[in-house]
Amino acid sequence: MNFEYKNYKLRKPKIHDAEGFYKISHDKEVMKYYGTNGTFYANINDAKKQVDWCIKQFAENAGRWIITEKNNDCYIGDIGFFDFIKEHNRTELGYILCKKYWGKGIITNFIKQLLKWGFNELKYNRIEAMVDVRNESSKIVLIRNQFQKEGILRDYEFEYGHYVDLEMYSILKRDYSK
User: Fold this and answer.
1) CATH number of the structural domain spanning residue 51
2) How far apart are CA 59 and CA 136, in angstroms?
3) What domain count does the chain have?
4) What separation, in Å, do the N-terminal and C-terminal C-alpha atoms of the chain show?
5) What is the pLDDT of residues 56-78, one digit of tens each?
6) For residue 171, what is the enclosing H or E element?
7) pTM for this entry
8) Which residue, 104, 99, 98, 56, is CA-closest to 80?
9) How many CA atoms lie within 13 A of 27 on its CB side?
10) Does residue 168 lie in a domain region?
11) DSSP classification of residue 99
């Protein structure tokens, strides 16, 4: 697959992406709603484990792609599917982007492309995303891509000393096809 949008592209993860994972994980504004409870990669070896996890997703009928600029192969974020459940043809969508690139339509447009790939090539029936209830920007991105809010998962995560509600969004193949 070849995913591109303006000056950006998606590519499969490489071990040198660990540096990008490490750096983004220490940006408190980017990580504010990411569900990490302040647990960031302590070192590059921890970040390499995340790269390995991303690579592993491709063998499990999913895929976590690295976002880069076309003229620069450096990590600026990642996006893709994970936790594929074969029996139900269901997966979860996740994404993160360095704040320098926020508001440029990058995530919105790559979600659009990944939905096409997920429904047509990977044969998913359901793609879901869980979003911190305070993360208005992420909710807007999902709604722009035809995701529907299904409800609130109350006290779903424990972060920074308190429980956080998450909203469940999903898109079904039959909705996408319309």
Assistant:
1) 3.40.630.30
2) 32
3) 1
4) 23
5) 999 999 999 999 999 999 999 99
6) strand 162-172
7) 0.93
8) 56
9) 14
10) no
11) G
